[in-house]
Structures are given as structure tokens and as C-alpha cells.
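Field guide to reading this record: the first block holds the primary sequence, the second block holds the structure written as C-alpha cells, and the final block holds curator observations. Each block starts with its own label. This record concerns t-SNARE coiled-coil homology domain-containing protein, catalogued under organism Kwoniella pini CBS 10737.

BLOCK 1 — SEQUENCE
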Amino acid sequence: MSITPLSISVRLNSTSSLLLERSRIISLNLKPNPSSLSQITRNLISIRSDLDQLELENDGLLVGQSKKGKLIDDGDKENEEIEELKRRYDQLLDILGEDEVGRGKVKDLIREEKIVSTPPIPQPTPSPKPPPSPIRTPGFNEVPKLSVEPPTPGINRDRNQDLKPFRDYPDDASDEERDAGMSPGDMLDHQQIMMNDQDERLNLLSNSIGRQNHLSVQIGSELDIHHQLLEDTDQAMDRTANSLNRARRRLDKVANDAKQHGSTITIVVLIFILLILIIVFKT
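BLOCK 2 — STRUCTURE
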């Protein structure tokens, strides 16, 4: 597929949208997606390569060569378009270099200015003029008849269509081909719509992050309450354990006293039972 200023302009527009989205995310103190930076870098490398190739092709036009039926004036016009594309490319590099990570990428993406030395155009050597011949008026029969043929229609468009890859479904064209058929005004409107959509998505993302932050604060408060309840439960269990220990010590003391004075208690109980029996039998 041939490289044209229009195709490079379309890719510059799409890369500009990615850079603006990345700058907006960085301005919100959010971390941009690494895949977006990789896509931007690949686009800029491809654009730089195409700009260099297009500039070399245009240099051939400026020194008087012809390419695909173009004239030298067409080369001058295309040179102005290339300079405009180079200026837009440098602006994208300035946007990318606003943060530290982007500055590291910009060092490898800066274009090298090329100085093209145009070979001197050979001047034709003047040939000696022949001596003037006497003026003779041609007769009626000597005047040549000229036939003008109608111009043939251009075939550049059909040829370009034949060079395009075959598609089973012509409607499923790529974004670049769709943008190539748009006017600059429509393209700007499309880019504005895309930027507005990205702004809405970023606002939704910001609101979602705010809600998640609020939920995390509430969860932290609930965790503090549960921690306080667990501490109160531990204190209550400690008090219950102390009460059980005191009761166990008292039971142990009673058991020890019963073991030490068991015989005396038995004699006292037997005497008490005997007295009761004597009283009962006497009555």
C-alpha cells in the first residue's frame, strides 16, 4: 500500500487521541495503562519511518524526477504537506514527554534531520544558430492538417482500487480507510466525539474510584468495631476464667478439710444418729 500524506495524517490523529487520553489519566493522578504507551510508541515509530520514506520520495520530485505522472510543482506542494506532518509529529513528541516515562521514550523517537544535496541541473549547451532563411509564405496545399484527439480519462483511481487488498465484505473496512474518506471537518468532529466519550468514561472511572474509596473507609470502620467487640469478649472470658479458678480453689479446700477430719466427722454423725434412736425408743 502506497504511503500518502493523508494516511499519515489519519494515524497522527489517532495517536493524538491516545496521547490526550493518557495525559488526562496522568492529570487525574492515575496510573496509565502500559499497553497504551506501547501502542503509542509503535504508532510513532511507524509514522517516523513513513515520514522519512515520503520525504525521500518527495526529494526525487524536487530535483526534477517524475513519479507516477507527478510534476515538480506537485512535489513542492507535497513538500509543504510533509513539513506540516513533521511539525505535528514533533508536537506529539512534546505531549509524550510531559512525564518521566514518556521522556525516556521520546529520546528514541526524535527524527534525524536530513540534508539533501540536490545535484546541479545540467545546463544545455547552446548550439550555433543556423543562418536565417528567406521567409517564404506557404501555399494552401502545404498547410498541414492537425487532428486533436479527446483526452483519455485518468486511470489512477481504478489502478489504486485494483491495488487494494480483496475483502469478502467491502463494508468491513479498517478505521484508517474510513477516516481517509472523511473531510477535515468531519474528521475533527469525529475526534471531538471520541474525546467527549473518553471524558465521560474517565468521569465514570473517577466516580467509581470515589465510591470504592468510600466503601473502603466504611469497611475499615466496621473492622474497628469488630476488633473492639473481640477485645470485650476476651476480657469477659478472662473474668469468667478467674471466677472458675476461685471456685475450684474453694472446692479443693473443702475436699482437703474433709480428708483431714473425716474420722471425727464420722464419729459425730454416728453419735447424732444414736441419740436420735435412743430418743425414739424411749418414747
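BLOCK 3 — OBSERVATIONS
The CA atoms of residues 91 and 222 lie 51 Å apart.
The radius of gyration is 49 Å.
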